[in-house]
């Protein structure tokens, strides 16, 4: 193992340089204008896998963006770890809030990252993280330290709901057969308190449309006598959450797993400083479901958020219009045992129910995902915990994240294997926001932890 | 007079051709990208005034877009009519809802316009309408029928609040001295029921901003534990109007002129078919302030409308973000004796008052305008009524419009003259909307009515 760690130490600068090349590709899966960049990125990932020593490397076509595959089978009798990651990234807007262009990576020191952090869209989510696995694999190969088999699937549609992945996995169960899945697409609690993510929330994402008059109207001539779809939509959104912060959708909480007082006490040990939390995002006060801590609200409780709203005139100056339509994007984070189909259906029914008679509403589902839990007594969890404890020199705790990686549930169902969410980002990495970044400390700790995980897991 | 009407009859086709040239200029004052088009349009208007026989034609510079001036003084002892119009137009978006490009005028027959209507941005508001005055003036000049003095001011900032007009009028009170102001920038009740507009609503227009977290956040990691500015803004908008359709801003109705039951009964004689009203804009049901008819809601009662809303991700696909900020444009239509300064101030105080402590809100005033009333026993009203009765061959009624022409109050204050709102459009012209149009019938009836107005007014 020491050889491997030495090799990593000697190649740090090259690893960063190579990651920079990957970050320069604007692989925005949500926007068709970037189609070619996403395809180029897939080719680049395949090239890296090959160069690192993987066999059978293939850019597998799907109905959407390709999935990059590679493997190293050293002995069919040994366990197999399937590494999953995604090479697509979130849209970077609002662009004007980036200090430098989102696809021109650079390193800058910050208060949390005195060694410097890599700033670029995708640096933490997920290029910087899946690339750690390719580089750790390279280090194990170069130092003859790979203790078991490894397979890679790096997809290009994670940010738009992994539309092609399930079909691909179902059609390739033999090729992808494995004992566990290893994913770095989450964050640790803090540098001082490393964690392994043991729970993820699911997701239901819909777009809603409210149509009033069948054309835009002059607000002077019609104002006061017709339903204004912006007002109607605002009133409907206001109704979705009550004064106690509870979601009003009929039956929304029916299947929510009630977490025991014991477990809640345990998880609240992690509790950070509420003042620091507010300060870090510039808030005077927080809000949320009554009776739960901020940590609980973002992990063991389901939530509902408008992610976008638009309607009417939004340009410069003033236009006195009553628009025909107003729109919103609304997502709900789910916990065990809610399912996206169930919640999307319940939302649709409720939204239609609360719509006044004088408008027409439409609810269009986007992608969804199941919630996920990894028990902390599993071999997978323990291998990750021990690996990170060695790398960080600190005790590692289990942690439930508020985010969603919908495919973990699917992997378990189709491949019969548990996913280990060994992510190395920080909460403050600004993923999905302007100025996304990934600490060099985190990047290298990740590369060091991965061979240790393989060692523990192969032994265990 | 018959000579003048004959001249008009013989030149109809040329009038339409000339108007088409004017409509091809994209004089969008709200959007700086169209700066040169607005300036070009001013030059074109000046050229038309000159060619029609006006003296002292001038493109007068202002701090904003120029005001085009021209006059014909035949005898200083005779009365002077000041014609006002505007050559700027509303932004045409949403562009994809136009059947043909907004600045490529064409004629098409419709159910309401069997003779055809001119489709183009600005056809009714206001190029097609002020151009009637230039052509009627040309006809009177060519047939030696101008019975009194006339002055023209055609401005280029009406759609953005006439920012430079007041200063210009104040600095040129001698040049603009007149006995009445004649404006065609409104509509008649219907082809069968011509009307003169005797009341206009005022306007207060603000932009609001709600800021929650100081940066965009991942809705999975933060959702449920922070104030989402879209939700907060939605709740605040929902609070602005109560269940009876009344505006909740403190003191909003304090200065509202209470219209007598008698006058309300009189105005409701005009009452159209509510089913037709709903059908014309594709609505199943209407809404508004309790206790008032649709006609009253859009004329003698003040209103509040969101004209635009935006925040978060509004592109294609799904993005799981909690935005830092959400925005809305909100306008209020005012009635006598509300004032825009008073109402803007009251709105600002109320909006700040209802904002929860955990967000920061900002209210930025755009332009405003005073409400206006022209009593129906004035010489100005009676000259217009009689002119239109001759041209249409029908009885003409007074009509209060819900729209705003804020400058009428200013003209009265600075020039001491009443404005006559002799507009010829139809409610269904889709001004401020896609597929704006202006009936050929209306265009020609307007050109015929104007010399009749001059005759009546000069005699009166």
Automatic annotation (TrEMBL), chains A, B:
Pfam families: M20_dimer (PF07687), Peptidase_M20 (PF01546). InterPro entries: Bact_exopeptidase_dim_dom, Cyt/Met_Dipeptidase, Peptidase_M20, Peptidase_M20_dimer. Its EC number is 3.5.1.18. The keyword Hydrolase applies. One of its GO terms (molecular function) is peptidase activity. NCBIfam families: PRK07907.1 (NF005914), PRK08201.1 (NF006053), PRK09104.1 (NF006579). This is Succinyl-diaminopimelate desuccinylase. It comes from Chryseobacterium taklimakanense. The gene is dapE.
């Amino acid at each position: 193992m020491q050889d491997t760690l030495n090799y990593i130490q000697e190649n740090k600068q090259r690893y960063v340089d190579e990651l920079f090349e990957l970050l320069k590709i604007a692989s925005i899966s949500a926007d068709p204008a970037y189609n070619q960049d996403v395809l180029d990125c897939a080719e680049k990932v395949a090239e890296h896998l090959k160069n690192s020593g993987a066999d059978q490397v293939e850019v597998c076509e799907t109905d959407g963006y390709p999935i990059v595959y590679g493997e190293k089978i050293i002995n069919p009798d040994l366990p197999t770890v399937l590494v999953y990651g995604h090479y697509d990234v979130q849209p970077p807007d609002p662009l004007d809030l980036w200090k430098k262009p989102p696809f021109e990576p650079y390193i800058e020191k910050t208060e949390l990252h005195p060694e410097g952090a890599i700033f670029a869209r995708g640096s933490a989510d997920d290029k910087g993280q899946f690339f750690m696995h390719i580089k750790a694999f390279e280090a194990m190969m170069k130092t003859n330290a790979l203790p078991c088999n490894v397979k890679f699937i790096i997809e290009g549609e994670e940010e738009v709901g992994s539309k092609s992945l399930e079909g691909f996995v179902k059609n390739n169960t033999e090729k992808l057969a494995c004992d566990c899945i290893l994913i770095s697409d989450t964050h640790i609690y803090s540098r001082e308190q490393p964690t392994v993510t043991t729970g993820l929330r699911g997701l239901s994402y819909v777009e809603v449309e409210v149509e009033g008059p069948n054309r835009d109207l002059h607000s002077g001539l019609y104002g006061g006598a017709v339903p204004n779809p912006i007002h109607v939509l605002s009133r409907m959104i206001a109704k979705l959450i009550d004064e106690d912060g509870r979601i009003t959708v009929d039956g929304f909480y029916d299947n929510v797993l009630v977490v025991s007082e014991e477990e809640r006490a345990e998880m609240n040990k992690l509790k950070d400083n509420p003042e620091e939390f507010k300060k870090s995002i510039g808030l005077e006060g927080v809000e949320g479901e009554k009776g739960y801590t901020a940590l609980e609200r973002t992990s063991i409780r389901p939530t509902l958020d408008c992610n976008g709203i638009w309607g009417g005139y939004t340009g410069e100056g003033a236009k006195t219009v009553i628009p025909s339509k107003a729109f919103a994007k609304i997502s709900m984070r789910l916990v065990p045992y809610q399912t996206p189909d169930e919640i999307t259906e319940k939302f649709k029914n409720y939204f239609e129910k609360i719509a006044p008679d004088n408008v027409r509403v439409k609810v269009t589902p986007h992608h969804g995902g199941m919630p996920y839990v990894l028990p902390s007594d599993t071999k997978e969890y323990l291998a990750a915990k021990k690996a990170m404890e060695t790398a960080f020199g600190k005790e590692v705790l289990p942690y439930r994240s508020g985010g969603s990686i919908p495919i973990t549930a699917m992997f378990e169902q189709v491949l019969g294997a548990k996913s280990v969410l060994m992510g190395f980002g920080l909460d403050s990495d600004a993923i999905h926001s302007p100025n996304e970044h990934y600490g060099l400390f985190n990047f290298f700790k990740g590369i060091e932890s991965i061979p240790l995980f393989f060692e523990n897991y192969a032994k265990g």
